[in-house]
Design brief:
8 helices; 7-stranded antiparallel sheet; about 30% strand; Phage tail protein beta-alpha-beta fold; Jelly Rolls; 7-stranded mixed sheet; alpha+beta
Length: about 300
């Protein structure tokens, strides 16, 4: 008889993980757990996987682990543990091959300057940003969104959702977060709730909390940092900059238009704060000229240069 735990047993192990690590388990609960763990080889195997999930925290950098379970208040601790528990039931083999899907296989995509919203039956909402593409697997109990290009904003309901990129997998429920595919990493920004991250080729795992942003590759998870204000309103058509470098702002606005936007290196480090419409580049340039010593020049409609005002 196989000792591989079933999905139902893995779900039970996830519940025990939440109970025992919450700091609220009674002596009776611990005794009940021991009876459950020793009831069958499947239960024992499921709990070994749970212990491996917790043990993966030891491989993370000190700056990352300081934000883990022992530092969370009770509600956030329970939520983080619940998301970690959900990772027990994740089946990485399926998305390891699927993450290599070519862009033309996308089920939903947007052109440059376009955004699109998809509402799922369970209340989950996906918002695709400019030049983005996703592949969906929503049959039966499978709920998976694979980001092929660009970025997405996800608002989930009470059902768990897997979001994957070429760099790894994320699992969450009842959360609002954004994922962006960069050249060499994926960036996760969590606005509400918690999101568990597992890189494709590394054993480490981290549960990002609301207000955190981080990058991860196939091999590692970077230390989290406070969430940037610039990410909060792109789905509303606004880019909110707070002390942002000018060249960074122009690169972000340039993602929403065809053509080249060049920033003179002499003014690239100027700092910008304000709200800029992502779908009206001309208006954004007007706002910049009103607040910074800059001027613009163009060669046709597709090549714009921003330099220092004379």
């Amino acid at each position: 008889m196989s000792t591989a735990p079933s999905m139902a047993v893995l779900a039970e192990a996830a519940d025990w993980l939440v109970c025992l690590q919450s700091g609220e388990a009674s002596a009776q609960a611990r005794a009940d757990f021991e009876r459950w763990r020793t009831a069958s080889p499947q239960h024992a195997a499921a709990w070994q996987r749970a212990e491996a999930v917790l043990g993966d925290f030891a491989s993370l950098p000190a700056e990352t682990t300081r934000r883990t379970l022992s530092r969370l208040d009770a509600p956030r601790r329970r939520q983080a543990l619940r998301v970690l528990g959900l990772m027990l039931a994740a089946a990485p083999a399926g998305w390891l091959a699927w993450r290599q899907a070519p862009l033309w296989t996308a089920d939903l995509r947007t052109a440059t300057g376009e955004q699109s919203t998809l509402d799922l039956a369970d209340g989950t909402r996906l918002v695709l940003d400019t030049a983005s593409a996703v592949k969906l697997r929503l049959a039966g109990t499978t709920r998976q969104v694979h980001l092929l290009a660009g970025s997405i904003l996800v608002s989930t309901g009470r059902q768990s959702l897997d979001v994957t990129t070429q760099h790894g997998a994320m699992r969450t429920l009842d959360s609002r977060f954004a994922v962006r595919l960069l050249d060499a990493a994926s960036r996760l920004s969590v606005f509400d709730g918690a999101v568990a991250i597992a890189p494709a080729h590394a054993g480490g795992m981290y549960t990002a909390q609301a207000g955190e942003e981080l990058e991860f590759t196939q091999d590692a998870i970077a230390s989290p940092r406070p969430l940037g204000a610039s990410l909060a309103l792109w789905d509303k058509g606004m880019l909110v900059a707070k002390n942002m470098r000018l060249d960074t702002l122009l690169a972000e606005l340039g993602r929403y238009r065809y053509g080249i936007v060049r920033c003179d290196p002499a003014i690239a480090s100027l700092r910008v704060s304000g709200a800029f419409p992502v779908h009206d580049f001309a208006r954004s340039l007007v706002l910049l000229r009103q607040t910074l010593p800059v001027q613009t020049s163009s060669v046709g409609p597709y090549w714009i240069t921003i330099g220092r005002a004379l």
